Structure formats: structure tokens, C-alpha cells
């Protein structure tokens, strides 16, 4: 109870990161289509009086989308978040948050000028006290209400275009379960008509950046809730695992002694209630998940369909995936071949990189293997193993970024499935984040992985990161300048040779004046950049 009380006090008035800001979940904000809450540091919208940010029109990407979603104006998530708000806070410098009250990932301090680098560690490398603290934090998040955010329980149309707001409270942990559901839910077309081929967080280029932001936000909320600024999500390295080593009461909950689909009563996770798992029922009712408890966590690891997922992924499969040079390819969805993203997500064979949706590899294999709540996309975040699994998936993404060092332009700017173009805002996050903003090294976002660290180089690389980023952005200009410099050098060299020939034809009386102070043969011209 002491942790619960501490968390409840700490979360009050702290800037939070999630879905609908409570300050904007009202008729006035919805009808005005503006979400620019006051920052409590100076009580101005977006902290404008303190130069933290200002209320601005949202700039939406106009890039064309892929053919997977052949509708327009039927889903609240299209051109996020413009159906609800077309003006939000745009923060300056390193400030971040729905009211610019926080710091960007990787920065801290009153003015957000202090660089930070936290390290995510293997859960089996944590000491007993560190592991117990992590488990206590999870349970605290499940039992602490979110102060700054609410969830939507109806569509904008069902809210009568904002005149009848439909929102409700939720706890910290379930807020993230609901966000994962909301990003991946089906489109309600009216009546019994449903469009299932839509997902703003999976099956397309944004899969890895979206879950990267999800984990960063989740990590940040636990830090705020507990006051533990050094907290990081541990990861589970499942390569070559023969079984679910974390499925014990010491860690994430063992198997129930009489019902193999349930968790052991010795684990407090056995008392958790799941939400957002009845997708077909929501579709029939033309409703959204309202975060009502729907029963206990289900998990029966290893007793899955072996024809789809015969075993957990191997180290060799991960290494093959890392060798792929293309981040995305072809249709940029689950049918993409030779795509690093599609192979890591698990829709392409981890030994050939050819799409095969009848099999589940790498990331998908873990979800299927768990054979329970984690195996259904919309409700998969209910199982706390979700964050451990996705932290390791993110580390593989990080390995690929460090190995191939792609330019931002490698991430598709156009023709990706809806919501997945480089400049699209990710659903359903407020403050707003674009997909392309997280297609970069984790060190630039303030975190690293213990098994990826290079101790001798870390401090030097961290020092160089801002300069390398600037160099990457101006590289085309440097190349252009070098070409122009070469042309200028050639022209001046030609002019010099011409002058030398002319000087030889000049009368002897004039020649000494040209070489009086320096030898003409030692003159050179350089272009300085």
C-alpha cells in the first residue's frame, strides 16, 4: 500500500503522455477542435509565456496512401487527430507534452537541457530486489488511476460531433492496453459492415517506430508514477529458448495447477482483469472498448498450433533478419518480400524473407506461442510479458539501425498503408509524433540496451551524435559544394596555366614584376568549406 499511496500522490499534476488529455475531453474543446491546455508553470496555453511552445494548426501529410484502405471520411483515426482537434501545442526546443510541460525523450532538467541515457537490461540479469521492484511497479500501474488522460468510449459521430463527449477514466497500465487496441481495431462502416484490413500499428512500416514510442511512453509513465527516473523496461531475450523461462511465479506468473489456461494463484498477475479483448462483440454493437474488465489473463505457453509456430525463434533467424538491407519493400504490408520490417514482424519467413502469412515467425511467433491473451492483436498488451517481448524486438530494430545506418529517406514517404507514411502522425498519441521521428538510434532518444553497449565508444559516440545528425542532414549540400569547388579549382588552374603561357611571351622588362615576391610554380588554389 505504501507504493500505491506514493504513486497516487506523485501522479497528481504531473504531465502525462497518452491518449485524450483530460483538459481537452469536453464539449468546448471538441467543438472548437483545439487541444492546447495550460501549463501549470505559468498558466498559459502550451507554456507560451515561458517560450515552451504555442498553440498551432496541425500540419497534415498530403502524401498518397497505399490501396489497402479504399475509404475516406469513415474512421476517426484518418489524418490523426484532425477529426477531434486541428490545433494542438507545438513545443519548442527540447520541450514535449500535450501542454509542453515535459521534456523530449533523452532530456531532463527544469529547462530540458540535460542529456540522459538509461540502459534497458535483461530481466534475468536483474537482482532479486530490482526484479521485485519491477513487478511492484507493474502492479502499482494497474491499480493507479491516470490523472491527465481519459479514453474515448464512443466515436466522434456517436459523440454528436462533440456536443456529447463520451470519455471515461482508466488506470495507468490499462491506458496503454487501450491505446494498443484503439490503434489496431477494425473500422466501423455502419450497420454490420466492418473493414478489418486496417491497422495503424502493425503490418506496415510504422510497426517498429510505433511500438518504440509506445514503450518510451510506458517507461516514462512508470518513472513519473514512482518517482524513479532511472527505471527502464527489462527485456526478455527469447532467442533459442526451449520454453517460457519467464513464465514462473518468480517472474511473470506460472501455470495454474488445475487449469493450464490460467496463471498460478501465487502470482498477483492472476488477479488482473483484461480489457478490450471482445473485438467481435464491439463490432456487432458498433461500439468501442470501454475498458470494462473481461476476465483473467489467459496464457498456455507452448500448447499452440505447431503447424503455424513450431518453436520459439532462433539466433540464426535473428541474424538472417538483420542481414536484410531493405527496411521496407513492395506493397509495404504483410505481403512484402525481403523486407526487414516484415520479416522481424513475423509475416515473412525468417530464413528466406519471403512473405508467408500461414506461418508466424520472430515477433509474431512469441505472440502465438503464448497461446492466450497475447495471441489476439487488439488485446495482447493485457499480458505484462508484452512489454518484455517488445523491448527485445525493439533491440533487434536498434541493431539493424546501427548495422545499416539508414538515412531518414529510407523510411517510406508515400504509398504505405494508411497511417504509416513517414510524416503521418501516429494513432492515438497526443502529443503528436510522426513515424519518421523515431527511425533513428535509441541513443538519440535517451536509452540503450545492455547487450548492445560498447563501453569504450559510448561516451565518444554520444558526443558525436548531434554532429553526425547535422552532417547527415547537410550531406547533399556538402557533395554539391565539393562538385562546385572542383569546377572552380579546374577553372582557376586553367586560368593560371594561361597566364603562365602569356607571361612567357611578355618582354623581359616586365617579367620580374610578376615573380618578385613568390615563385609562380608554388601558387595553388583551394576551396574551403
UniProtKB/TrEMBL annotation:
InterPro entries linked: Di-copper_centre_dom_sf, Tyrosinase/Hemocyanin, Tyrosinase_Cu-bd
Occurrences of domain Tyrosinase copper-binding (ranges): 202-219, 383-394
Superkingdom of origin: Eukaryota
Keyword Ligase: no
GO CC term (a single one): melanosome membrane
GO biological process, one term: pigmentation
Matching SUPFAM superfamilies: Di-copper centre-containing domain
Annotated transmembrane regions: 474-497
Cofactor field: Cu(2+)
Residues making up the signal peptide according to the UniProt record: 1-18
Major localisation: membrane
Transmembrane helix listed as a keyword: yes
Membrane topology per record: Single-pass type I membrane protein
Entry's localization field: Melanosome membrane
Enzyme Commission no: 1.14.18.1
MF-aspect GO terms: identical protein binding; metal ion binding; tyrosinase activity
Gene3D superfamilies: Di-copper center containing domain from catechol oxidase (1.10.1280.10)
Keyword vocabulary terms for this entry: Copper, Glycoprotein, Melanin biosynthesis, Membrane, Metal-binding, Monooxygenase, Oxidoreductase, Signal, Transmembrane, Transmembrane helix
UniProt similarity note: Belongs to the tyrosinase family.
The protein's name in its UniProt record: Tyrosinase
Record organism: Upupa epops
Gene expressing this chain: Tyr
Amino acid at each position: 500500500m505504501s507504493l500505491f499511496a506514493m504513486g497516487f500522490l506523485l501522479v497528481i499534476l504531473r504531465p502525462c503522455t497518452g491518449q485524450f488529455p483530460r483538459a481537452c475531453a469536453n464539449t468546448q474543446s471538441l467543438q472548437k477542435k483545439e487541444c492546447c491546455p495550460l501549463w501549470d508553470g505559468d498558466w498559459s496555453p502550451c507554456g507560451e509565456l515561458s517560450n515552451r511552445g504555442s498553440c498551432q494548426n496541425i500540419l497534415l501529410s498530403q502524401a498518397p496512401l497505399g490501396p489497402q484502405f479504399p475509404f475516406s471520411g469513415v474512421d476517426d483515426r484518418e489524418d490523426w487527430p484532425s477529426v477531434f482537434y486541428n490545433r494542438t501545442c507545438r513545443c519548442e526546443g527540447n520541450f514535449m507534452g500535450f501542454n509542453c510541460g515535459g521534456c523530449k525523450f533523452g532530456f531532463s532538467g527544469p529547462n530540458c537541457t540535460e542529456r540522459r541515457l538509461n540502459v534497458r537490461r535483461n530481466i534475468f540479469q536483474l537482482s532479486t530486489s530490482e526484479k521485485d521492484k519491477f513487478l511492484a511497479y507493474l502492479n502499482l500501474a494497474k491499480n493507479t488511476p491516470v490523472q491527465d488522460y481519459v479514453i474515448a468510449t464512443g466515436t466522434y459521430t456517436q459523440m454528436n460531433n462533440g456536443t456529447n463527449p463520451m470519455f471515461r477514466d482508466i488506470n495507468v497500465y490499462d491506458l496503454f492496453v487501450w491505446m494498443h487496441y484503439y490503434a489496431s481495431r477494425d473500422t466501423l462502416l455502419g450497420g454490420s459492415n466492418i473493414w478489418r484490413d486496417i491497422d495503424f500499428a502493425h503490418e506496415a512500416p510504422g510497426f517498429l517506430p510505433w511500438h518504440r514510442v509506445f514503450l518510451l511512453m510506458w517507461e516514462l509513465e512508470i518513472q513519473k508514477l514512482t518517482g524513479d527516473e532511472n527505471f527502464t523496461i527489462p527485456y526478455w531475450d527469447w532467442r533459442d529458448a526451449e520454453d517460457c523461462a519467464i513464465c514462473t511465479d518468480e517472474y511473470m506468473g506460472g501455470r495454474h495447477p488445475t487449469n493450464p489456461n490460467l496463471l498460478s494463484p501465487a502470482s498477483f498477475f492472476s488477479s488482473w482483469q483484461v480489457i478490450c479483448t471482445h473485438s467481435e462483440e464491439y463490432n456487432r454493437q458498433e461500439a468501442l472498448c470501454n475498458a470494462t474488465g473481461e476476465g483473467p489473463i489467459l496464457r498456455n505457453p507452448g500448447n499452440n498450433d505447431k503447424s503455424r509456430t513450431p518453436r520459439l525463434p532462433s539466433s540464426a533467424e535473428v541474424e538472417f533478419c538483420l542481414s536484410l538491407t531493405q527496411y521496407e519493400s513492395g506493397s509495404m504490408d504483410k505481403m512484402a518480400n525481403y523486407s526487414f520490417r516484415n520479416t522481424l514482424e513475423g509475416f515473412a519467413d525468417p530464413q528466406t524473407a519471403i512473405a508467408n502469412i500461414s506461418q508466424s515467425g520472430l515477433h509474431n511467433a512469441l505472440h502465438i506461442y503464448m497461446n492466450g491473451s497475447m495471441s489476439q492483436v487488439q488485446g495482447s498488451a493485457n499480458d505484462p510479458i508484452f512489454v518484455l517481448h517488445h523491448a527485445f524486438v525493439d533491440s533487434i530494430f536498434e541493431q539493424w539501425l546501427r548495422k545499416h545506418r539508414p538515412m531518414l529517406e529510407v523510411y517510406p514517404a508515400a504509398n504505405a498503408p494508411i497511417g504509416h507514411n513517414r510524416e503521418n502522425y501516429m494513432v492515438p498519441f497526443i502529443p503528436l509524433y510522426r513515424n519518421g521521428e523515431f527511425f533513428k538510434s535509441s541513443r538519440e532518444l535517451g536509452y540503450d540496451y545492455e547487450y548492445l553497449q560498447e563501453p569504450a565508444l559510448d561516451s565518444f559516440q554520444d558526443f558525436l551524435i548531434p554532429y553526425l545528425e547535422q552532417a547527415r542532414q547537410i550531406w547533399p549540400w556538402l557533395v554539391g559544394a565539393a562538385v562546385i569547388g572542383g569546377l572552380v579549382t579546374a577553372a582557376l588552374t586553367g586560368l593560371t596555366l594561361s597566364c603562365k603561357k602569356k607571361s612567357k611571351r611578355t618582354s623581359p622588362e616586365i617579367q620580374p614584376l610578376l615573380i618578385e615576391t613568390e615563385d609562380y610554380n608554388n601558387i595553388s588554389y583551394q576551396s574551403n568549406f
